[in-house]
Design goal:
Strand order of the largest sheet: 2-3-5-4-6-7-8-9
Number of strands: 20
Strand content: 15-25%
Helix content: 25-40%
Shape: globular
Number of helices: 11
Radius of gyration: 22 Å
Length: 459
């Protein structure tokens, strides 16, 4: 028996049951509990400060990102000042994060394996194991967020599940064994075993924090951040791939597949799904086959996009060969400003009372949309200075304004925006620190510091 098979055999003993659903007859996601009707999303507030660092502090560890002070919008600058202005904004962002860098230390000293505990929203806490593998590449380590299996358990306190303890240890052991040297691993332990999900608001904010802190440092390549997970971690990484694809270069769910909406949201993030052929629990193999067909069709229609691989492992059940995923993920880099964006703006947690709508992806700002509990598919196509926006569907409940951050254009010429074929904007745009501040607050990403913006009314 070779080394990989020996390790698989050892880990499979520790990994079972791989999810709480296998153990307790529980669905991998809770049934719909008829959430209350949604009210229109209020317009984000304006942070009452002209100090950029103070403004950025109001945006940390929240999904409700306020706009900067209105006075900032009155100041414009020329294209020759763009890099200096970006440096200034990033310096203010770094200043705003100084305390968070100390408090939520990630990678120093990254050579030594260590644990940290993060305080999250809603009073939750998350343990994280961090370790590096191999020497740092010249462009920086790849970073993998590795989500364990297990999930919801009837226990008296937040960390009361021995199943989740065991699954966390399994995820750590697997992370060390995967063939992806030159990487840093962040392996979180489930924050609250009584909830047992990776895609609720506290977890989303934690993963956003992890990406932002990684991009503030010099150890991680901001173009090579990945997420993967097994079983419950597969469900979580799958949902997060659809909800926040722009933070990751590639995402790889394993042993978990659901009949989710939003397959078009995977247009610009590489996606690897693997499920056992005999994994019939909660329809996993069936749903994986459906995803394989859907993504193949999308790839055929869009040859340059929807990079993916769906593997149905022959003769395997819920425990599969986990070693093929991360080497595949590591081949891909993050797309920053894609010429085509498809994004279904919808409630990612319709099976919970609290809705989850994105504030923005790639270079789109959704904060001035009112969703009324509904959804709308946006299709964006950019060619030179022209942006075509299509809203797909007949739902009239999503209303308001869509923001488009402008970059990779000739700023000396007009920007044209067409909505469903009709011209709605055609003029030059001003560069402003306000838009640099907005985009920095939304994503905390050194690759997405956008100095111009066009806002269009969709309905």
């Amino acid at each position: 028996m070779n080394k990989t098979l020996c390790l698989l055999s050892l880990l499979s003993c520790l990994a079972l049951p791989a999810c709480s659903a296998c153990n307790a007859g529980e669905q991998p996601t809770p049934p719909n509990n008829n959430p209350n009707p949604q009210t229109p999303k209020p317009e984000p507030p304006t942070a009452p400060t002209t100090n950029l660092a103070d403004y950025f502090k109001t945006t940390l560890d929240t999904e409700d990102i306020p706009y900067p002070d209105q006075s900032l919008y009155k100041q414009s600058f020329g294209i020759d000042e763009l890099q200096a202005k970006r440096d200034k904004i990033w310096g203010a962002w770094r200043e705003a994060n100084a305390e968070r860098i100390k408090k939520h230390l990630l990678f120093a000293p990254y050579q030594a394996e260590h644990d940290i505990i993060w305080s999250l929203t809603e009073g939750e806490r998350m343990k994280l194991r961090l370790f590096a593998k191999g020497q740092k590449p010249q462009e920086g380590y790849a970073m993998f967020i590795n989500l364990h299996g297990g999930g919801k358990a009837e226990v008296p306190n937040e960390w009361g599940s021995t199943m989740n303890d065991d699954q966390w240890k399994t995820a750590i052991a697997l992370g060390k064994a995967y063939n992806d040297t030159g990487s840093i691993y962040l392996v979180p332990r489930m924050a609250d075993d009584r909830k047992g999900r990776w895609y609720l608001a506290p977890q989303r904010i934690a993963f956003r924090r992890a990406c932002q802190l990684a991009m503030l440092g010099e150890d991680v390549d901001p173009l090579r951040i990945y997420m993967t997970g097994i079983s419950e971690g597969g469900y979580g990484s799958h949902r997060l791939a659809i909800f926040m694809p722009d933070f990751f270069a590639a995402i790889g769910p394993m042993a978990g597949a659901e009949p989710l909406k939003g397959e078009r949201n995977l247009r610009n993030v590489a996606f690897h799904l693997s499920v056992g052929e005999l994994d019939h629990g909660f329809g996993r193999s069936k749903y994986a086959q459906e995803w394989k067909q859907k993504l193949a069709e999308l790839k055929t229609q869009n040859p340059d996009d929807f990079v993916h691989e769906v593997q149905i492992r022959p003769r395997m059940g819920h425990s599969i060969d986990y070693f093929r995923t991360t080497p595949w993920l590591a081949k891909h880099k993050r797309r920053i400003y894609p010429e085509r964006i498809s994004y279904l703006y919808y409630n990612m947690t319709a099976d919970y009372p609290t809705p989850s709508y994105s504030s923005g992806v790639y270079y789109l700002d959704f904060r001035k949309l009112s969703h009324n509990g509904s959804s709308l598919l946006f299709e964006i196509s950019k060619q030179g200075n022209t942006y075509d926006v299509a809203t797909v569907g007949t739902d009239e409940k999503v209303t308001g304004e869509l923001g488009i951050y402008i970059d990779q254009v000739d700023f000396s010429k007009p920007i044209m925006v067409r909505l469903n074929g009709k011209e709605v904007y055609n003029q030059t745009v001003a560069l402003s620190e306000a838009y640099l501040a907005e985009s920095t607050a939304l994503w905390g990403d050194p690759k997405r510091l956008f100095a111009a913006k066009v806002t269009i009314k969709i309905k």
